[in-house]
Design a protein that fits this description.
The complex is a heterodimer of chains A (181) and B (174).
Chain A lengths: L2 H9 L4 E4 L3 H9 L5 E3 L7 H11 L4 E6 H6 L2 H9 L4 E7 L2 E2 L5 E2 L8 H7 L4 E5 L2 H9 L6 E6 L14 H13 L1
Parallel strand pairs in A: 1-2, 1-3, 3-4, 4-8, 7-8
Antiparallel strand pairs in A: 5-6
Helix pairs in contact in A: 1-2, 1-7
Chain B lengths: L10 H12 L4 E4 L6 H6 L6 E4 L3 H13 L4 E6 H16 L5 E6 L12 H14 L2 E5 L6 H13 L2 E6 L9
Parallel strand pairs in B: 1-2, 1-3, 3-4, 4-6, 5-6
Helix pairs in contact in B: 1-6, 3-4, 4-5
Classes of the chains: A alpha/beta (181), B alpha/beta (174).
Chain lengths: 181, 174
């Protein structure tokens, strides 16, 4: 499974999605662009945090789609999620052990660092590791009561997708409109 | 002068929180500082959803998310945390034109006892100017209303605004 295979499954859900900067957003946009997706255009490391804010402030389920490199940049988020993550919050870490958007340089999760173990050690009780598309599909079909942390182990590699052509204001405005309806 | 380490909420802290509330704030993140400790004790009682965070940049992200769902967010922090937040403020909050009030304990100014606070104390106004964030210092009780004005501006114009507290505020003689 590559990142784009996981994103195809995520694109099938009705949840609000906050999608990490770079290739994750490019790939998700190319699979299915939806107003319920907030594409990050900057601020690497903050997908989990943005998603947490969205989840606390309204009732719909939120999937924060993050990467291993990005979570390593904001590890404190795992502790904050454990203490303040609401039941509609789900962090999906697509862990390909690489900084995919900058040339697949290896991250530490390919060697000694275990993000699921870190999430548990930070106090999270609902932590899942999935290695297969069926595993991810099953988990997202019947989302457990959150906060959950789902680590999706994938191979590195990006699909050939162009940059998200939307402006920041259009991403924000249509996402906010969807939420307020 | 720097505020003591274990302050009780004072009438000044009550006015700070009241002004923020009057401006419509209903969400907050924080990394603590002695100067803002009293206000932090009061914000939940004021009906403001409060998420303490591990690092200021994380708070910028959570506040941005809350604003997407219509909340009016405030981030409480020490000015050292401004340094930890700059990329997020520029490439998230400001780039997407989201509202955010920064309530900042401005350390490293007159009377600072910790030398390491001084470099960021000096740099803080220039950093805000460089980012294009409008700010005001609140060092006297007569300046407290500035908080409400800047908060309203942040929330109505989808901009970042900053209030810089000086320790003198809590030591001002009547």
């Amino acid at each position: 499974m590559k990142r784009i295979d996981a994103l195809r499954i995520i694109a099938d859900t009705d949840a609000l999605v906050v999608c990490n900067i770079g290739f994750p957003s490019r790939e998700l946009y190319s699979i299915a662009d939806k107003p319920t997706t907030f594409y990050m255009l900057g601020s690497m490391g903050l997908a989990s945090s943005i998603g947490l804010g969205v989840a606390r402030a309204q009732k719909r389920a939120v999937l924060a789609v993050d990467g291993d490199g990005s979570v390593l940049m904001n590890l404190g988020t795992l502790a904050t999620i454990a203490h303040y993550g609401p039941s509609n919050y789900h962090l999906v870490i697509i862990d390909n052990s690489a900084y995919g958007s900058t040339g697949d340089q290896p991250t530490f999760t390919g060697r000694k660092t275990d993000l699921a173990a870190l999430a548990r050690a930070a106090g999270n009780e609902q932590v899942y590791t999935v290695n297969t598309e069926d595993g991810l599909r099953g988990l997202l079909r019947e989302l457990p009561r959150g906060p959950t942390v789902i680590v999706v182990k994938t191979e590195p590699g990006n699909a050939d997708c162009p940059v998200v052509p939307l402006t920041a204001s259009s991403i924000k405005n249509r996402f906010m409109k969807t939420i307020s309806q | 002068m720097i505020r003591g380490v274990f302050p009780m909420p004072s009438p000044i802290d009550e006015r700070i929180v009241a002004f923020i509330r009057e401006a419509g704030a209903n969400f907050a993140c924080s990394v603590p500082d002695g100067m803002i400790a009293g206000a932090l004790e009061l914000i939940e009682k004021a009906g403001i959803d409060h998420v303490p965070v591990t690092r200021e940049e994380e708070g910028v992200g959570i506040c941005a998310g809350a604003s997407l769902a219509g909340r009016k967010p405030v981030l409480f922090m020490q000015n050292s945390g401004l340094g930890n937040s700059i990329n997020a403020l520029a490439s998230l909050t400001m780039f997407y034109e989201m509202p955010l009030l920064l309530v900042v304990a401005h350390r490293g100014t007159k009377g600072e006892k910790i030398a390491a606070q001084i470099p960021m104390g000096k740099a803080t106004p220039m950093l805000l100017d460089t980012l294009g964030i409008r700010w005001a210092t609140v060092a006297r009780r007569s300046q407290l209303q500035t908080i409400r004005r800047l908060a309203r501006e942040a929330f109505s114009k989808n901009r970042v605004r900053a209030v810089l507290f000086r320790g003198e505020l809590w030591n001002e003689k009547n």
